Amino acid sequence: MGIDAAHCLVIEDSVIGVMAAKAAGMKVVAVPSLKAQMDRYSIADYVLHSLLEFRPELWGLPAFGDWVGNALPIEPLYVKGQVQKGFLCEVADDGPNALPDQVSGIYFGWAKLSTHGIFKVVVGIGWQKDSCTTKRIIKPYLIGAVDKYISGQQLEMVLVGYSRELIHEASKMDLNVLEEDKLLASEALDLPMFAYDMNNSLVDEATLVEDKCSLE
């Protein structure tokens, strides 16, 4: 390319790619594909949990122009499972709608409970690592629902927007959704670009539940 390696920025998902870029004298942003081996990516200049966290302006590049305020439209993500103790037990799916490993952060979209219609939903998604395993954690918050509706229910979701990365402190992950996240999601989902997927095959034949209260 005829460019000084010191002026190059590489975005990589593999350990070997990170090592090669660093050996060449380039700056590297890693988005690990091996969630169980996050520590191996520490040689990168910066490690992200999702490519959506990348901010080009921090590297002297033009900022992305597709944000709508503090909300980023995304290709719809589909996820379903049963809610237990506030968390979604994801149904294993290796098909085209499988949730990618790099999905991490606070997302929003539409959710259908098995018996209570459609709700606006805000979701914290991340990875939890202990001494033996690494597993995905999904924590949904339904706007306009109450606790008794959720526990033990089958939940189907289509996520259409992203708002922010998770807060990580001392290797711990904070999946908690803030009141600001709920407000942002509720307002964004009233916009046509985010409301469109409410009417897809995942949520048709159900009734939209008006925002009457927020799930604490």
Automatic annotation (TrEMBL):
Q: Which domain of life is it from?
A: Eukaryota
Example GO biological process term?
riboflavin biosynthetic process
Identify the EC number(s).
2.7.1.26
Keywords, sorted A to Z: ATP-binding, Flavoprotein, FMN, Kinase, Nucleotide-binding, Transferase
Pathway(s) where this gene product acts: Cofactor biosynthesis; FMN biosynthesis; FMN from riboflavin (ATP route): step 1/1
Q: What is this protein called?
A: riboflavin kinase
Q: Does the keyword Thylakoid apply?
A: no
Identify the species of origin.
Thalictrum thalictroides (Rue-anemone)
Cited InterPro entries: HAD-like_sf (IPR036412), HAD_sf (IPR023214), Riboflavin_kinase (IPR023468), Riboflavin_kinase_bac/euk (IPR015865), Riboflavin_kinase_dom_sf (IPR023465)
* Catalytic EC class: transferase
Q: SUPFAM superfamilies recorded for this chain?
A: HAD-like, Riboflavin kinase-like
- Molecular function terms in GO for this entry? ATP binding; riboflavin kinase activity
